[in-house]
Amino acid sequence: MTMSQTPSPAPGARWAIPGTRWPVLRSRWAALAVLSTSMLMTILDGSIVTVAMPSIQRDLGFTPAGLSWIVNAYLIPLGGLLLLAGRLGDLVGRKALFIAGNAVFTAASLLAGAAGGPGLLIAARFLQGVGSALASAVVLGILVTLFTGARERTKAIAVFSFTGAAGASIGQVLGGILTDALNWHWIFLINLPIGLATILLALPALPRDRGIGLGAGADALGALLVTSGLMLGVYTVVKVERHGWLSAHTLGLGAVSLVLLAGFAARQATAANPLMPLRILRSRNVSGAYAVQVLTLGAMFSFQVVVALYMQRVLGYGALGTGLAMLPAAVAIGAVSLLVSARLSHRFGERAVLLAGLVLLIGAMGWLTRIPADASYAADLLPVMVLIAGGGLVLPALTALGMSSARPDDAGLASGLFNTVQQIGMAFGVAVLTTLAASRTEALRADGRTEASALTGGYHLAFTVSAGLLVAAFAVALTVLRQPKPVQDEQDTAPAPASITA
Fold first, then answer.
1. E strands, 106-228, where?
2. Which of 61, 245, 256, 428 is the most exposed place for a label (fewest CB within 10 A)?
């Protein structure tokens, strides 16, 4: 039979793809696998590039200043378009935007893999950032509409968080392997089979959604203000290391970015059809989770970057060795998020689990503040890799709290906003902590300290500030967040597609 709207079948039922005779296993868990694979690809891409940058510079003739644009050209559109993309998913359909984003990302990966010069590679990286923003902005929105029961949603978020934890470390290891065994082109070309498989599987696995229509939020001026403000803000932050925090470049562009974002907020308060209804920020759990997220991810992402720098510049590890040394942290975070966090959250609540995870992370950063210049991996670094498992408690709990007030008609917006806050936290964390570490190192060199000692002293300062950020995150979580009222577990069903042929 054919109808415009039918009840969703029970999970695991076989549906036929409209217009074909292909039977397809259609379930929420198959959809989650597709969403997680897409996120794994984009997260992996963000970390895999850093390992191959010396080879890219050597082959394509990048200048030292130009080399940073391999990363910056990806981060700027990603951070700037997430909020807009999330809202567009609500308006035109989240499935369509997810598939479009993966298509753009996959095509841009082919272009990057074939690049023979700096200009083409930077352009391809910009397009990758656009594709990643379109796809990742709506992922959580799709997830929370698929999994409506409390227990099932907690499990799904735990699986999704595991994917994110795995992607960063797998990227470092895989980047070293591909670059050494083949060449740097393959760090981009490996995305082709993954991207194509994701698109093909998303067609039957993800539920169709029509969107609420552009008329419900077609705020062109608001879109221009928020996109330009966020892009300019991300650009300002990533250039801090070159210009300094108090330079005219940083202060001037930072002020313009804030003016644009303030104009966006004012516009949303008065627009007939706002791009971002401000009601989404009225929940203390949502706004509090965003604050905790900025502080926590600033510290955690800087952990990944600063510890990697310490291993390579002080201990003399190679790129592949650094990736392997960081692997226990990813395994610990992944195991806790996948096997423990959902059970603890269901029993004690996300707020309690978040606080426990933050305590473990504070312990990890506190341990790093005393790490010596001649550290032993087993005695000095491995305990940190165990304590960092607290991230496996923190990340799923933050995701659940940040998406707790999402309504079906603005789930994409909530997803885009959550990911935007995530990018801002990581960008600011890396910019602040690496700049502080570099300044402290220079001061210690001037005092006559050895290179290893000066570098270690700079990293000690970064770890101390990271611990302070986590303490502040704990204070916000303790005083602002409240455990959400339990949601009645129900038989989760996927949203009904617009047209089903069964």
1. none
2. 61
Q: How far apart are CA 308 and CA 459, in angstroms?
A: 11
Note whether 399 and 159 are within 8 A (CB): no
- What is the dihedral angle through the alpha carbons of 114, 119, 122, 123, rounded to the nearest 10 degrees? -80
Calpha distance 430→298 (Å, rounded): 7
CB contact set of 316 (below 8 Å; sequence gap of 6+):
none
Q: Phi first, then psi: what are they for 2, rounded to 5°?
A: -125, 135
Two domains, one topology: 25-213 and 282-483? yes
pTM: 0.75
Q: Is 23 helix (H, G, I), strand (E, B) or coil?
A: strand
Sorted by where each begins, the domain ranges of the chain are 25-213, 219-272, 282-483
pLDDT, one tens digit per residue, over 38-64 is 888 887 777 677 667 777 877 887 776
Q: Which residues pair with 16 in a beta bridge?
A: 23, 501
> Which range, 109-118, 138-147, 183-192, 462-471, is most confident?
462-471
CATH architecture, range 25-213: Up-down Bundle (1.20)
* 338, 159 Cβ separation under 8 angstroms: yes
Question: What single-letter amino acid sits at 52?
Answer: A
Q: Tell me the average pLDDT across 469-474.
A: 95
Q: What is the mean pLDDT of residues 169-185?
A: 72
Cβ-based neighbour number of residue 445 at 10 Å? 16
pLDDT for residue 286: 82
Q: Give every CB contact of residue 249 below 8 A, 6+ residues apart in sequence.
A: 236, 239, 243
Residue pLDDT, tens place only, 229-253: 887 887 887 777 677 778 888 899 9
